[in-house]
Amino acid sequence: MKYINIVGIIKEEIAIIKKLNLKTDIIFRTFFSRKGNEYFLIDFLNALLNVEIKSIEIRDEVSLERLSTFEKGGRLDLQAKLDNGTIVNIEMQVSDEGNITQRTAFYSSKVISKETEKGTKYKDISKVIMINILDYDLLDFSECVSKTAIVLDKHRDYEIIDGITWYFIELPKFRKSNPNMEDKLNQWLAIIDDYDKEMIELAEKNNQIIEKAKIELGTLTGDEEIKRIAELKEKWEMDYNSAVQNAEERGHAEGLADGLARGRAEGLAEGRTEGRSAGIAEEKINIAKKLISFNTPIEQIVEITGLTEEEINRLTEN
């Protein structure tokens, strides 16, 4: 029994160690927001945005105590302000929840609202860049990095609004793309993805900043406090997903029962004839009772069963 427990503990530790890379949102935000690590984020953003960033202001350096107390079950994103005033928001998303585009639109509007104080002129509103790093496929295109632009319908080459830009980085497509590891963006995606050891080694070889980042990441993932918080968040997410799945299964079962009852009722209604028997009439009453128990609107029950509103009202009263 003791042997089994020890093996289980070892397996759990190995699982946590494997997951503690930059695709773990706690690791991602902690790594890039730590004081002294700004040049890592600058190097990554220079490569992605194709600009020259000289300085950056990280919004709210991660506090482990705050993460442990308030955010172990929340969503963690990284926000920074560039030297030109642009606000950059980065989110790591491992699982597809089916709402990333809607969330990105909502979050970008919130970021703008937060930056806009009373009396701010429209021309002074900061530009916002939303970067979503996804460990799943989202778009039906082969490119692993996609950038949006708001253009006119009949003049697609004319960008009418440039204040908001979204980036979607799809890591599975990056793995399959046979990337050029002399490209700085590919070097960062390799270390973020943490999937191909050979690509990571090439990234370290070609970029000294990546080499230092790998060392810093190794120190960070060896931190017992970080591992504990990551484990707590993972447990919360597993419990949450399990609860959602159970709720969906219950809803599916109830919906299936409802659908079968409606389908059966519709089939009987379509097949009624002038010479219907008393047995069919009784069956229609039973179907109506079932539909009433599902709180089906009376108009639909009338249409499905052929009973009158008066007959259905009597059944409801009984």
Give an account of the 3D structure.
With 318 residues, this protein is an alpha/beta fold. The chain folds into two domains: 21-207, no CATH class; 222-318, no CATH class. Helix content is 58%, strand content 14%. The chain contains 13 helices and eight strands. Strands 1-2-3-4-8-5 form a six-stranded mixed sheet, sandwiched between helices. The protein has a two-stranded antiparallel sheet with strand order 6-7. Strand 6 and strand 7 (155-161) form a beta hairpin. The longest helix is centred in the last third of the chain and has 47 residues, at 224-270. It is elongated and about 85 Å long. It starts with a helix and ends with a helix.
* Proportion of residues in extended strands: 5-15%
How big is the Rg?
28 Å
How far the N terminus sits from the C terminus, by CA atoms, comes to 60 Å
Q: What coarse outline follows from CA principal-axis ratios?
A: elongated
Largest sheet strand order? 1-2-3-4-8-5
- How does the major sheet shape up? 6 strands, mixed
Mean pLDDT: 79
Count of distinct structural domains: 2
Helices and strands, in order, run as HHHEHEEHEEEEEHHHHHHHH
* Fraction in helix: 55-70%
